[in-house]
Design goal:
Strand 1 and strand 2 form a beta hairpin. The strands form 4 sheets. Strands 4-5-12-7-6 form a 5-stranded mixed beta barrel. A two-stranded antiparallel ribbon has the order 1-2. It has 624 residues and is of the alpha+beta class. Helix content is 56%, strand content 11%. The mean pLDDT is 96. Helix 1 crosses helix 8, helix 8 crosses helix 15 and helix 15 runs antiparallel to helix 17.
Length: 624
């Protein structure tokens, strides 16, 4: 663990080992051979590779970008990406949480997700090529026949073959059921695939000699809509019986998108079966494509939240360092003294506020992602039925919040980081403008944030049997509130209590709306509800954090005040961490979270203008 320009490594350790108590997972059979030193070594290695190989190549992805050859339909990534990719694969991070019996390391998802923050903060475009292997591996393991697993998994576990996720078509984005891609069964059990997919991340590259594409398509004669969709594995190169590569499959990359950000990742248009010879292998059962793909999509949505948090973390860390070194203006207390010395801008009150806003939001987002990962570990490891049931409820209700809440907040945090730089932040000489361009897409891809909000409102809360997911979230928040009493000042407990009460009122109102069939009024508040629950969840996590940081800060600092307190903080990194973490949580609950109550009031008012407005009311714009 060291200081770095991307991620607060001390905060990662605090969340994993102090807040969550990660080592408790070692009581499960699947994690019994691990200990804290193993987890620490893994995190340290992730940090080192991310700093040495990923961070140093991030600008290349943006400035050199990709080279697409329209004659060969091949894409070359920046040369610097290859070294980082090989370091990641050779260290086994692509199979870190994969079962040991299948060639993986078998570590908790919590450690894998914490490691992923480093890599994404270093170079998200490069990390996406790496992570796509992991996602494809998992669905092949879960749903593949023995023949399919034998054909694809060994080379993917070795990191020799890449992966993707092929859903989107030009007329079937959010509406996946409208896809046109077709599969025709052959006598040997394979399928011939035809169709075009767009916006496919990692769709073509030269990091691996083969790429395995999980492709959604409809078997000829199967029903329309999502119920008729199946999923197939389509390799870039066909595979011989001995596992070596055969001839090129009948699928090509027809082009790559020219994007605002993430320019080092090949967002590809893929064409399957132009010559009627594209071979695909059924994954799972016929017409169960959405069931399979949702496993991959849910993991991708969670990882999107991690990506967004990581990029905004890098932006924040750079802003802090810049603010410490940028000399501008005198201290506010010396504003009438013309001969007063100039100070770093980090001494100015509003810059402190901006940095504390960023710090508290990022720390909240980090707690959220790792808390979800910890519950995933319990969900897949515990033998206690009730424990698994509760952990599953937490994962289900928090997944859309992780994706949508974090990606929305990360865009705002990164914008604030640019603001700290002033005009320099808008210039390419500094990395923060790239972070701003890279971070925006996370609210758009893997299901737009409105889709996540609708999923949260309907499937995860109102239509969830007995609203069990919501009841478990309330239970966890209430437990934290009770634990905080006597440790944390009431002024930080009361807002969280009130927030839960107000959210209950909204859920009761929405339950009545669904009973009365007022669906339009209900769904127009799906996004506002998600945007309200997100800060409540962060406030709750910050309150939980305060139950630990306040006593620990007190133990180190005692009753020291003023210059004496500041000297201890300057000389003792643990004093600086715990007191800073405490102030961060206090700021979030006291200065950011009160905005929640305005959001709740807006929902309760049920303003109907958005229902009444017609296309013609948006005057002044062209019709086409």
């Amino acid at each position: 663990m060291s200081l770095n320009p991307l991620v607060d490594s001390r905060d990662v350790r605090f969340i994993l080992f102090e807040l969550l108590g990660l080592e408790k997972l070692n009581s499960f059979e699947r994690f019994k051979d691990f200990d804290r030193s193993t987890y620490e070594d893994t995190l340290n290695l992730a940090e080192k590779i991310a700093i040495d190989q990923f961070y140093t190549s991030n600008a290349d992805g943006d400035k050199i970008a990709l080279q697409f050859n329209p004659k060969t339909h091949e894409v070359k990534v920046p040369e610097s990406f290859h070294k980082g990719f090989r370091a990641y694969i050779e260290a086994g991070f692509h199979s870190l949480s994969f079962p040991p019996e299948e060639g993986g390391v078998g570590m908790p998802t919590s450690v894998s997700m914490a490691s992923a923050e480093y890599f994404n903060a270093g170079n998200t475009s490069l990390t996406m090529y790496c992570g796509a292997i992991t996602g494809a591996m998992h669905i092949i393991l879960l749903f593949g026949s023995e023949e399919v697993k034998k054909m694809f998994l060994p080379k993917m576990v070795e990191g020799q073959w890449g992966g993707t996720m092929c859903l989107t078509e030009s007329g079937a984005g959010t509406d996946v059921g409208a896809l046109k891609s077709k599969a025709v069964k052959q006598s040997d059990g394979t399928y011939l695939i035809t169709g075009q997919k767009i916006f496919i991340s990692n769709g073509e590259h030269d990091l691996t000699p083969n790429i395995i594409h999980p492709v959604l398509a409809r078997i000829e004669g199967d029903p329309e809509g999502t119920k008729g969709i199946s999923i197939f594995l389509v390799p870039k190169f066909l595979i011989k019986e001995d596992g070596s590569l055969g001839e090129r499959n009948d699928m090509i990359c027809s082009g790559i998108e020219h994007k605002m950000g993430l320019k080092g990742n090949a967002t590809s248009s893929l064409s399957f079966g132009d010559n009627g010879k594209c071979v695909g292998y059924l994954l799972g059962k016929e017409r169960e494509g959405m069931k399979v793909m949702f496993r991959l999509m849910n993991a991708a949505r969670i990882h999107t939240g991690v990506q967004a948090e990581a990029v905004s973390s890098a932006a924040y860390m750079h802003a802090v360092t810049y603010a410490r070194n940028r000399i501008q203006g005198s201290h506010i207390t010396q504003m009438l003294n013309p001969s007063a010395p100039k100070v770093p801008i980090i001494e100015h009150p509003d810059v402190k506020r901006m940095l504390l806003y960023m710090k508290s939001t990022i720390e909240g987002m980090r707690m959220l992602t790792l808390f979800l990962a910890y519950n995933e570990d319990i969900m897949y490891s515990s033998s206690a039925a009730e424990e698994v049931k509760e952990a599953t409820a937490i994962v289900e209700i928090l997944t859309p919040i992780v994706k949508a809440g974090i990606s929305d907040a990360a865009w705002l945090v990164t914008a604030e980081a640019m603001q700290v730089y002033g005009g320099y932040g808008y210039c390419q000489e500094y990395p923060v403008e790239q972070y701003a361009r890279d971070v925006k897409v996370f609210s758009i891809y893997e299901g737009t944030n409105y889709i996540q909000s609708l999923d949260l409102l309907m499937r995860k809360i109102l239509m969830n049997p007995e609203m069990y997911n919501y009841s478990i979230l309330k239970k966890r928040i209430t437990e934290t509130v009770q634990k905080a009493k006597g440790i944390v000042d009431d002024k930080y407990i009361t807002p969280v209590e009130r927030g839960m009460e107000k959210l209950d009122e909204v859920i009761s109102m929405m339950t009545k709306q669904i009973q009365e069939g007022k669906f339009v009024a209900l769904v127009q508040n799906a996004a506002p509800l998600q945007q309200a629950i997100f800060p409540l969840v962060l406030a709750w996590l910050h309150l939980w954090s305060l139950t630990l940081t306040m006593p620990k800060a007190k133990a180190i600092l005692g009753d020291a005040k003023g210059e004496e307190r500041q000297k201890i903080i300057a000389d003792n990194s643990e004093a600086a961490y715990y007191s800073g973490r405490m102030l961060s949580s206090q700021f979030y609950i006291g200065a950011e979270f009160p905005k929640f109550f305005g959001k709740i009031e807006c929902i309760m008012l049920n303003e109907g203008a958005a229902i009444k407005v017609a296309s013609e009311n948006f005057t002044g714009a062209l019709k086409e």
